[in-house]
Amino acid sequence: MHASLTSPGGDCGHQHLVEFYDTAAFLVDTVGGFVGSALRGGDAALVVATAAHREAFEAAPKDSGVDLASATSSAAP
User: Fold this and answer.
1) Is 26 contained in some domain?
2) What are the helix (H) ranges across the chain?
């Protein structure tokens, strides 16, 4: 189940997504797909997560062919 939210002032050019999950595998697949899609498209992604979830998320883009090390090292300081 998820809900897409936009700003109260109208279209702000981005979306926020709230996702409720039953299993960690579902969470990792969903977040990994979202982050991987953003990075493949040249966009940015911000993830706030526990250390265990972060490690699982970091593995997901690698599985989809995203070079996470290159994406994170090319971020603006």
Assistant:
1) yes
2) 24-40, 51-63, 68-73
